[in-house]
Design brief:
307 residues; mainly alpha; Arc Repressor Mutant, subunit A; two-stranded antiparallel sheet; 9 helices; 29% helix
C-alpha cells in the first residue's frame, strides 16, 4: 500500500508565464525619476500621466503652454488643455503670479514631482537632487496680489481685443444655373495650374456662390482664376481658406447699370426710308421719292420741281 511509484509523471507546470516581465537596465545619464503615485494614478487619464512625465523631464524655464505642447505632440490643443486641467486639479501643476521689478504681474507654471496638496500646510515641495526648491501654491488659483504702495499706477497686461468675425462669402444677387456651373468648373480645375489647389467636393460647394458673385459683377473666368492663383504662399496649409479670403477681400465692384431704352415720346424718330437717286439710281435715304444724292447735287443736277 505504501509502495512509491517512481515512474509517475511530475506535477503539471505552467506553460507560459502570465502578466508582464520587466527587464530593467540601470540608467546613468538622461533619466527622470517618477513616482508610482503618478505612473499608476487611478484618476488621471493616460494623456495627463504622459504629459506630466514630459513636463517633469524638461529643464527649468522651458515653455509648457498649450500651443508649444500642441506643436510637440499630435494630441491637439483641446486634449492637451484638458490634460493640463487634470494635472492642476490633482496637484501636479500650479500657476503662480509674480510681480516683476518693473511692476508688471506675470503668471508662470510650477511643476511638482509629488502632489503639493500632500505636503503639510501646503508648503513648498521638497527639492530633488537635480531640481531647485519649488514655490508654494494651492489647488485653487491664487488671489490677486495686493497693490504696491510705492507704485502709483500699477501697469497691467494689455487686454487682447476679441477677434473680429470673418465677413461672409459674397453671394450672387440673382441665381443663374449657367453661371453656377461655370463657377464650379473653375474651382474644380484650379489644381491644373497648381496641384496644391485640389479642393474637396464640400469646399467647391462652399466657394461656388462666391465665384458666381464675381461672374455676376462682370469678371471673366480668366480674371477670377488669375486672382485666385497668383502669388500663392509657401507652404500652402489650407487652400480652401485662402481662396475664401481672396474671394471676399478682392471682390470687384458691381458692374454699372445700363440705361434703359427710351419709351413713349422720348423714343427717337425712325430714319427715313430708302429711295433711288433720280440721277444715278443710287440708294439714298429720303423722306419722299424723286430726290438726288449728294454727288448728283454737287454735279449740277437739281431736284425736279414738285408736281
Amino acid at each position: 500500500m505504501d509502495t512509491q511509484h517512481l515512474s509517475a509523471p511530475p506535477c503539471a507546470q505552467p506553460l507560459n508565464p502570465r502578466g508582464i516581465t520587466h527587464l530593467n537596465a540601470p540608467h546613468t545619464t538622461r533619466f527622470t525619476t517618477v513616482g508610482n503615485h503618478l505612473a499608476q494614478h487611478r484618476q488621471l487619464s493616460l494623456t495627463a500621466i504622459g504629459l506630466a512625465l514630459h513636463i517633469q523631464s524638461l529643464p527649468d524655464q522651458a515653455r509648457v503652454d498649450i500651443k508649444t505642447l500642441a506643436d510637440r505632440f499630435p494630441e491637439g490643443e483641446t486634449r492637451i488643455a484638458a490634460a493640463l486641467r487634470e494635472l492642476k486639479a490633482h496637484g501636479y501643476l500650479a500657476q503662480v503670479r509674480k510681480r516683476l521689478p518693473n511692476g508688471r504681474v506675470v503668471t508662470h507654471t510650477v511643476s511638482y514631482n509629488q502632489p503639493h496638496a500632500q505636503h503639510p500646510g501646503h508648503g513648498p515641495a521638497p527639492a530633488t537632487p537635480t531640481a531647485a526648491p519649488r514655490p508654494a501654491s494651492d489647488d485653487v488659483p491664487p488671489p490677486p496680489l495686493p497693490a504696491d504702495p510705492s507704485i502709483e499706477n500699477e501697469p497691467t497686461t494689455t487686454p487682447v481685443p476679441p477677434k473680429a468675425a470673418k465677413p461672409p462669402l459674397p453671394e450672387p444677387r440673382t441665381p443663374d444655373l449657367d453661371r453656377h456651373r461655370t463657377a464650379t468648373a473653375l474651382l474644380t480645375t484650379l489644381h491644373h495650374l497648381d496641384p496644391r489647389l485640389l479642393l474637396s467636393e464640400r469646399a467647391v460647394r462652399h466657394l461656388s456662390p462666391a465665384v458666381a458673385a464675381w461672374l455676376e459683377r462682370g469678371a471673366r473666368p480668366e480674371a477670377v482664376r488669375l486672382a485666385l492663383t497668383t502669388d500663392l504662399p509657401s507652404p500652402l496649409r489650407n487652400p480652401a481658406a485662402l481662396l475664401a479670403h481672396r474671394l471676399t477681400e478682392l471682390l470687384p465692384p458691381p458692374a454699372p447699370a445700363t440705361a434703359p431704352p427710351p419709351r413713349g415720346d422720348d423714343r427717337p424718330a425712325p430714319p427715313p426710308p430708302f429711295h433711288s437717286c433720280e440721277g444715278c439710281e443710287r440708294a439714298i435715304r429720303s423722306p419722299q421719292p424723286g430726290a438726288y444724292c449728294r454727288d448728283c447735287r454737287d454735279g449740277g443736277l437739281s431736284t425736279p420741281s414738285a408736281a
